[in-house]
Amino acid sequence: MTSPCCHPPDPPIPPPRTPAPIIPSLPRNLAFPPAPSSLQAPIPPPPPLPLPPPAMGAAPPHVFGLEKSRLLKEALEKASPVPKGREDVKRLLKLHKDRFRSDLQWILFCADLPSLIQEGPQCGLVALWMAGTLLSPPSGIPLERLVQVATERGYTAQGEMFSVADMGRLAQEVLGCQAELLCGGLGGPNRDLVLQHLVSGQPLLIPYDEDFNHEPCQRKGHKAHWAVSAGVLLGVQDLPSLGYSEDPELPGLFYPVPGMPCQPPSLPEEGIPGAVYLLSKQGKSWHYQLWDYDQVRDSNLQLTDFSPSRANDGRAYVVPAGGVRAGLCGQALLLRQ
Predict the structure, then answer these.
(1) Residue 59 domain-assigned?
(2) Alpha carbon distance 115, 88 (integer Å)
(3) DSSP alpha helices (H): ranges in 13-142?
(4) pTM for the complete prediction?
């Protein structure tokens, strides 16, 4: 996805900083205890923000990794233009068409998400910004506003987000949307809830462990990352008779016809391998990712430990009481208008 490019001079080395401990987040309203199934109660809004102090002469806070990520962003921008959503999805499906079972017919539901490359450890806030384009007014909500409120609320120090509940509070306050905290993992009774949510065109925020190719892996939370999913590819035995058209270039792939009533398909049963794929984006690539649902479920369910490299990098991070396990493990966020 990247291409060789000239590297700018190394940025000046900042003066050494006194190592700062991990900052545990303050106890919150315990309306969101971990539960074996999805949380029915909406996330309550936080108290009003205090008036901002005068900004004259104030320097922006340092975000670790900002210079490095800007170089990555510039390299990606030079590599190729960002494809349109449907074009990028079709490119992805053609690339992976051999993975799809020939005994099933495939239905693609996908809302169009923009791309945004993160700067520093802002993967969660970037994923929320992308989700917000489906939920906010057409003008959108600037990423800087999400960073500002998250910092003022004590949800983050460097741009990191280690609490799904805090992410839900931030979404409700800044985006004005509904947020449902999903606990107990993406399988079991939550699976149909997630798939119906995506079929309806609403975004899902998912923490997971990121592999070198951005796909979900299992590193016990050491590579914790955020993605936003706004699409799903379903393999079905029988295609509903109303409201779908077949792709002329990819036989066996169907889309809902825009503007027409659409009969919902029967969701594939859990335990059938290779029948459900999530279409997701995350803050290190312009392109959609196509992930097997079970792979995402398993990665999300094993986020238990804080990365040793981050624990020893001398930076401050906001981690909830109970650590990564309490803040991320087996949790996701359903966002609605």
Answers:
(1) no
(2) 11
(3) 66-79, 85-95, 123-132
(4) 0.78
Q: How confident is the model at residue 90 (pLDDT cuts 50, 70, 90)?
A: confident
Q: Specify the number of domains making up the chain.
A: 1
Can you give the residue range of the structural domain that contains 120?
A: 83-336
The catalytically annotated residue of 123, 177, 217, 329 is: 123
Q: Please report whether residue 14 resides in a domain.
A: no
Cα separation, 308 vs 300, in Å, equals 19
Calculate mean pLDDT across residues 159-184: 97
- Residue 218 in any domain: the answer is yes
The kind and range of the H/E element at 198 are: helix 189-199
Active site residue 123: yes
Distance CA 188, CA 208 (A): 18
Give residue-wise pLDDT tens across range 248-263.
989 999 999 988 888 8
**Which residues, other chains included, contact 131 with Cβ-Cβ below 8 Å and sequence gap of 6+?**
113, 171, 203, 205, 228, 230, 335
Whichever domain contains 246, its CATH number is 3.90.70.10
* 162: alpha, beta or left? (left if phi > 0; alpha if psi -120 to 50): alpha
Q: What average pLDDT does the structure give for the chain? A: 82
Give 2's DSSP letter: -
Q: Tell me if 22 is assigned to some domain.
A: no
